[in-house]
Amino acid sequence: MQRLVELAQYTSTAFAQVCDRYGVRRSMGKVGSSYDNALAESFWQGLKRETMHTKLFPTMSQARLEIFAWLTYYNARRRHSALSYLSPMEFEQQHHRTAKLSLAA
Questions:
Q1: Domain residue limits at 43
Q2: Is residue 70 part of a domain?
Q3: What are the residue boundaries of the Integrase catalytic domain, all occurrences included (predicted)?
Protein backbone atom coordinates (compact mmCIF):
# COMPACT_ATOMS: atom_id res chain seq x y z
CA MET A 1 0.00 0.00 0.00
CA GLN A 2 2.86 2.40 0.87
CA ARG A 3 4.32 2.02 -2.64
CA LEU A 4 0.99 2.95 -4.21
CA VAL A 5 0.84 6.10 -2.08
CA GLU A 6 4.38 7.04 -3.14
CA LEU A 7 3.60 6.44 -6.80
CA ALA A 8 0.42 8.51 -6.53
CA GLN A 9 2.46 11.41 -5.14
CA TYR A 10 4.77 11.46 -8.16
CA THR A 11 1.99 11.15 -10.71
CA SER A 12 -0.33 13.69 -9.09
CA THR A 13 -1.34 16.93 -10.78
CA ALA A 14 -0.11 18.95 -7.78
CA PHE A 15 3.36 17.39 -8.01
CA ALA A 16 3.47 18.06 -11.76
CA GLN A 17 2.55 21.70 -11.20
CA VAL A 18 5.29 22.18 -8.60
CA CYS A 19 7.83 20.60 -10.94
CA ASP A 20 6.69 22.83 -13.79
CA ARG A 21 6.87 25.93 -11.60
CA TYR A 22 10.51 25.23 -10.70
CA GLY A 23 11.58 23.99 -14.12
CA VAL A 24 12.03 20.36 -13.02
CA ARG A 25 11.59 17.81 -15.78
CA ARG A 26 9.91 14.67 -14.45
CA SER A 27 11.00 11.26 -15.61
CA MET A 28 9.74 7.87 -14.55
CA GLY A 29 10.80 4.45 -15.76
CA LYS A 30 8.56 1.77 -17.11
CA VAL A 31 6.20 0.07 -14.70
CA GLY A 32 7.62 -3.25 -13.56
CA SER A 33 11.20 -2.46 -14.58
CA SER A 34 13.02 -3.08 -11.32
CA TYR A 35 16.46 -2.53 -12.88
CA ASP A 36 15.48 0.94 -14.11
CA ASN A 37 14.17 1.88 -10.69
CA ALA A 38 17.07 0.30 -8.79
CA LEU A 39 19.63 2.67 -10.30
CA ALA A 40 17.61 5.73 -9.39
CA GLU A 41 16.81 4.42 -5.92
CA SER A 42 20.48 3.70 -5.27
CA PHE A 43 21.46 7.22 -6.32
CA TRP A 44 18.84 8.94 -4.14
CA GLN A 45 19.54 6.66 -1.20
CA GLY A 46 23.25 7.53 -1.39
CA LEU A 47 22.55 11.25 -1.62
CA LYS A 48 20.23 11.16 1.37
CA ARG A 49 22.43 8.93 3.50
CA GLU A 50 25.69 10.72 2.74
CA THR A 51 24.46 14.32 2.94
CA MET A 52 21.01 14.98 4.33
CA HIS A 53 20.53 12.46 7.14
CA THR A 54 23.46 13.75 9.16
CA LYS A 55 22.74 17.47 9.38
CA LEU A 56 20.29 20.32 9.21
CA PHE A 57 21.18 23.12 6.85
CA PRO A 58 20.79 26.68 8.15
CA THR A 59 19.94 28.05 4.70
CA MET A 60 18.80 26.82 1.31
CA SER A 61 22.09 28.08 -0.15
CA GLN A 62 24.06 25.92 2.27
CA ALA A 63 21.96 22.88 1.35
CA ARG A 64 22.53 23.53 -2.36
CA LEU A 65 26.30 23.86 -1.83
CA GLU A 66 26.44 20.59 0.13
CA ILE A 67 24.43 18.74 -2.50
CA PHE A 68 26.53 20.21 -5.32
CA ALA A 69 29.72 19.11 -3.53
CA TRP A 70 28.32 15.60 -3.10
CA LEU A 71 27.26 15.41 -6.75
CA THR A 72 30.75 16.48 -7.81
CA TYR A 73 32.23 13.76 -5.60
CA TYR A 74 29.71 11.17 -6.82
CA ASN A 75 30.31 11.93 -10.49
CA ALA A 76 34.09 12.10 -10.30
CA ARG A 77 35.67 10.35 -7.34
CA ARG A 78 33.19 7.95 -5.69
CA ARG A 79 33.80 4.28 -6.52
CA HIS A 80 30.90 2.64 -8.37
CA SER A 81 30.14 -1.08 -8.42
CA ALA A 82 28.96 -0.76 -12.03
CA LEU A 83 32.50 0.40 -12.93
CA SER A 84 34.26 -2.52 -11.20
CA TYR A 85 34.64 -0.35 -8.10
CA LEU A 86 36.60 2.33 -9.91
CA SER A 87 35.74 6.00 -9.67
CA PRO A 88 34.37 7.55 -12.87
CA MET A 89 37.66 9.42 -13.31
CA GLU A 90 39.71 6.21 -12.91
CA PHE A 91 37.38 4.35 -15.25
CA GLU A 92 37.68 7.03 -17.93
CA GLN A 93 41.47 7.18 -17.61
CA GLN A 94 41.68 3.39 -17.92
CA HIS A 95 39.38 3.51 -20.95
CA HIS A 96 41.57 6.13 -22.67
CA ARG A 97 44.75 4.14 -21.95
CA THR A 98 43.16 1.02 -23.43
CA ALA A 99 41.92 2.94 -26.48
CA LYS A 100 45.40 4.40 -27.11
CA LEU A 101 47.02 0.98 -26.80
CA SER A 102 44.65 -0.58 -29.31
CA LEU A 103 45.22 2.31 -31.74
CA ALA A 104 49.00 1.81 -31.45
CA ALA A 105 48.74 -1.94 -32.09
A1: 32-104
A2: yes
A3: 1-96
Q: Model confidence over 16-31: pLDDT tens digits?
A: 898 899 988 877 666 6
The model's pLDDT over 48-69, given as tens digits with 9 standing for 90+, comes to 888 888 788 899 999 999 999 9
Cα–Cα dist 69/72, whole Å: 5
**CA gap 73, 62 in Å, rounded:** 17
Neighbours of 78 (CB within 10 A): 16
Does residue 83 lie in a domain region? yes
Residue 4 lies in a domain: no
First to last CA, the chain: 58
DSSP 49: I
Per the DSSP assignment, residues forming a β-bridge with 80 are 86
Q: Report in angstroms the alpha-carbon separations of 57 from 30, 34, 44, 91.
A: 34, 33, 18, 33
